Amino acid sequence: MALVAALRSVFYGLLASTGLYALFIGLLTIPVLQDQVIYLNRVTLTWFQDVNIPEQWGFLRNQVTPFFLTTPDGESLHAWHILPLELYRQNQEALSTEPQGLALDVKKRLSFKLLRDDPSSLLVLYFHGAAGTLGSGWRPPSYRAMSVGAPHRIHTLAIDYRGFGSSSGYPSEKGLLTDAITLAEWAMKEAGIPPSRIVIFAQSIGTAVSLSLVHHMATQPKPVLFSGLVLVAPFADVESLTATYRIAGTVPLLDPVAKFPRLLAWLNTLIITKWPSKTKLADFIRQCEDMDQESPRYDVTIIHAEDDYDIPWSHSEKLFWHAANASMTHGITFDELEKEKIASRVNNDAGGWAVERRTRRGVIREEIMKYGLHDRIMSYPVVSLAVMRAFKTLV
């Protein structure tokens, strides 16, 4: 009898779990809940901390200037301008006399003038991942990693997208692209930094935002190409991500459903937010390859850790293939490219491996690290080195 009771308890437990999971899947068909799962923008991870006091995250007094940008559709985006350490040291006395906290007019701040008035200044536009704010997790350490290659001239500009942190509005695919364009336009027009001195850095969901940005800028009547693009822990598209993504690296989203391809395909038809990164990257590469010899060359680096439990590194493999295939007149199959990569890649043993593919109009790199997880890798030297390379001969 005890065995029967135990089996009955297990059966009811499994039945209840299945029912709850089915309810969870049903809720995901609601657009608002879909967006919350994708963006997790209400999970700030900086509760009870004032993001207008960056010194809480180890920055020196006024090394970071918080301010707001206004988008064309009227949203307010909270931003940080992070000064590189050596440039800060050279101007520490003057910077320390300015008021702390939110800059109501950032153009009056010395930090802005140091960026705008130096013809050798370089700028990283930083697009963070899902959840959190500008000050969450490994983001502050990664800001410091951006300028390691030239601590006297590499500035960083980061934003919280609409609906994140102190920014107004609610996130959407169209909205986040507008936010990215707003940041890029402000950097080029207000701060006066030409695209040849700008590198785009992005991680996780930020990689989708940045790929939409560079694709948008490159397909304008007067194409704009930035100095380089560094993508950390990217994903191929949302539909591919649903089959592999684990919330917080532990809770599988649609992994059980992925065992039933037809059911997964049907559920994917209900997904409104697409973020087709692999298509955007391929189209961007084709656009660049069709440009004349006088146009700037593109530079794309894809970085992923093998122990990333949130987004498997197989997504980077797909992105690299789509980029390489788009760069060739007759294309290349995934298997053909894998054979080429095995023959040409640089093996760094415990440091992972890297492969570089030079095309007619640019270069595409893939760097797979053994370690780094999903977020920690952002502060690693591999990222600092990728940013340095993306600035080409300017550093």
UniProtKB/TrEMBL annotation:
Keywords: Membrane, Transmembrane, Transmembrane helix. The keyword Iron does not apply. InterPro entries: AB_hydrolase_fold, Hydrolase_4. Gene3D superfamilies: alpha/beta hydrolase (3.40.50.1820). The chain crosses the membrane at residues 12-33. Residues 154-284 form the Serine aminopeptidase S33 domain. It comes from the Eukaryota. Coiled coil: none annotated. This is Serine aminopeptidase S33 domain-containing protein. It comes from Xylaria flabelliformis.
